[in-house]
Amino acid sequence: MLTSALQYAQTHRADQLHELKDFLSIPSVSALPEHKPDMQRAAKWLADHFTSIGLHNAAVHPTPGHAVVTAEWLEAGPEKPTVLIYGHYDVQPVDPIELWHTDPFKAEIKGDYLYGRGTSDDKGQLFIHLKAVEAYFKSNGRLPVNVKFIVEGEEEIGGPNLDAFVIANKAALKADVAVISDTAMLGIGRPSLVYGLRGLCYIQVEV
Of these residues, 72, 90, 134, 156, which one is catalytic? Predict the structure, then answer.
């Protein structure tokens, strides 16, 4: 299954890159009220994409802030493990814009790198999981495990509504393992398994 999925991913790389650029072009800045429509557009983009790659029950769940998007595929069977994949579709503001060498919401390839807001936090990582699911579906017709997705739109502002959503939907989100698509690698070709995060610390220095 893995070999055919990898072959599919390589064959469709250009199309997938185009889709990623489309996702990155949405200025889903959760911290700025003027981007509320963009947040809604990004949530809908995700739900539509979940459905298009073969996942079931894709839904946009309103919260007091920005929506949570979920989807699932549970046909591997009860004897197979269930993987819950977490990600977020919101991004940080782009200021100071004058320090950017490219348009932050028009993804651009330079050499071996793709530049744009969200490429590495967290739309890029989340997109990898979407395309992995698609590759398995298209090449094998099914997944080797059950899969659930939960994607929030408030990670960059501290996730104020995620706890309440998870508690209210505890049964639906139950899984054997959770994968967070929002951490770093040690280097090219050296993936890392992160098992804990320390939280946030803000420091302002005036000289």
Answer: 90
**Among 72, 134, 152, 155, the one annotated catalytic:** 155
Q: Where are the domains of the chain?
A: 2-180
Active site residue 34: no
Q: pLDDT for 112-129, tens place per residue?
A: 899 999 998 999 999 999
Known active-site residue 155: yes
pTM of the model: 0.91
Which of these CATH numbers, 3.40.920.10, 3.40.630.10, 3.20.20.300, 1.10.357.140, describes 2-180?
3.40.630.10
Residues with Cβ within 8 Å of residue 73, at least 6 apart in sequence: 54, 55, 56, 133, 143, 146, 147
**Hey, which bits of the chain come out as E strands?**
56-61, 68-73, 82-88, 108-110, 113-115, 146-152, 177-180
